[in-house]
Amino acid sequence: MQCTKTSFGTSILVILTMVLLMMYYTDHKPTTHLESHTSVPHHRHKTQGNITEDCKIHVESLVRKMMESYGLSEKTRGEGTLNSAKNVSTRGSNTTNIIDKNVRKVVLAYTMYFGQKPWGWMKNTHEFNHWQGVKCPYYNCELTFERRDRPRSDALIFHARDMPFIDTLRYALERKSPTQKWIYFAMESPMNNPLTSRFNSMFNWIMTYRSDSDIFRPYSYYFESKHIPLVQDVKEYMEGKDRLVFWASSRCGLMRDKFVKKLLEYMKVDVFGACKKAVGASNKDKCPKNSERCEKKLKRYKFELALENSYCVDYVTEKYWDALKRGVVPVVLGGANYSKKDIAIPGSFINAMDFKTVKKLAEYLIYLHKNETAYLEYFKWKNKYRIVDYPPWNCILCARLHLDNKPKVYTWLDTIWNANKQCGIHRKELQKMVRPRPRTFE
Ligand SMILES: *[C@@H]1O[C@H](CO)[C@@H](O)[C@H](O)[C@H]1NC(C)=O
Ligand SMILES: *[C@@H]1O[C@H](CO)[C@@H](O)[C@H](O)[C@H]1NC(C)=O
Ligand SMILES: *[C@@H]1O[C@H](CO)[C@@H](O)[C@H](O)[C@H]1NC(C)=O
Ligand SMILES: *[C@@H]1O[C@H](CO)[C@@H](O)[C@H](O)[C@H]1NC(C)=O
Ligand SMILES: *[C@@H]1O[C@H](CO)[C@@H](O)[C@H](O)[C@H]1NC(C)=O
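A: This is the predicted complex of the input protein with 2-acetamido-2-deoxy-beta-D-glucopyranose.
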């Protein structure tokens, strides 16, 4: 599932790298590797074709598309003619220095990331200029964590959960050059982020899981790929699957508890983590988070409940992706429109909201449990798409810093990032689903 970090070495180097990577993914269990949440140890696949090449093709096509959207033509974008394109101007801007390869834009990670600095998963310039072991195409950036680099930085990234004091922000804002981009970076839904009104008129771009972000940064990422691991027999996906459905959660007291409770009326659901008692699950065994033994156990299930903690636009977290990565079909419940290609892989999930009642959903899961052919259809996407842990947001951001000089500011960030406006989706239907008889709710 992972694009290997090879290239420009001897074959020995390539093999060494692969061995190292394998060790990494089997022995090292990253907890704060990417998000603050869980990260799944990867299962290894027999891969065919050159995956590195595949990632390279993908990220190049993304950046090229972006260049085109800024008015760079086929002629001017070729490697050999990059510098000659210096005098092409961006659409809607009057600057001309568009594509000078030698200009290295500076990106300052201004805040910590969940208390971490440097950010655990993006620590230096080298990492910032690579995606899945592939060098970001065409453009180069420098990543710094030093606040003293603020004046010379082309972009400042502020992680929403680690915001500085408002006075610190205002001080920096007063000294901000008009071309410096301030980026509001959020991974949590507006339900779980501090109020944004005091950040009005401060930020130029937003970088979030929302697909309409200036820099789209979902929790994981997938793309269409030619070099897909070929599976001899789709039944491989069924291997060792002798259990039905589980839910793992560390946070209780949300609407989703009621959903699981309701589902338990119709079928067996194994619950791991803090909410077991709250929903009245009866499984005896435990599954300590991030342990290899637990991960092995979870792979034995056919379905996983991937229930989001809030129901907001496009909000799909690692719960969905982790299920896919461990080869379990996710039963999703959230505010996102999962039919959007940006949001989820077509045919990879079962959406609870597609069912009139929880009972109907339970019946469907039991049907799939009994009908192997029908169940295996949820793995068809694997013939076409590949999942990786991160989107190439760094390459996109770097390219955009070179391309986009359009002035832009989020005057009303509090309407763009607002729990009342973007959350609570499906609330009414969901309430109806989880309690057929009227009863006070929360
Ligand atoms: C895979 O592709 C990369 C990038 O194009 C190349 O550097 C590498 O040598 C290729 N590896 C193999 C095994 O073909
Ligand atoms: C730059 O623009 C001028 C006209 O504005 C054009 O004649 C010239 O060919 C361009 N140079 C390159 C390298 O594209
Ligand atoms: C073009 O840029 C100059 C400064 O470089 C600025 O004064 C001018 O207003 C800009 N023109 C437009 C149309 O944006
Ligand atoms: C969800 O997304 C799909 C695909 O983009 C679209 O056709 C559909 O109208 C959307 N549904 C809603 C409720 O917005
Ligand atoms: C099992 O699923 C397949 C594929 O969806 C379907 O064609 C078949 O009729 C189902 N069999 C039964 C017994 O429901």
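Residues 6-7, 50, 52-53, 56 surround 2-acetamido-2-deoxy-beta-D-glucopyranose (ligand 1) (CB under 6 Å). Residues 153 and 334 are 37 Å apart (CA to CA).
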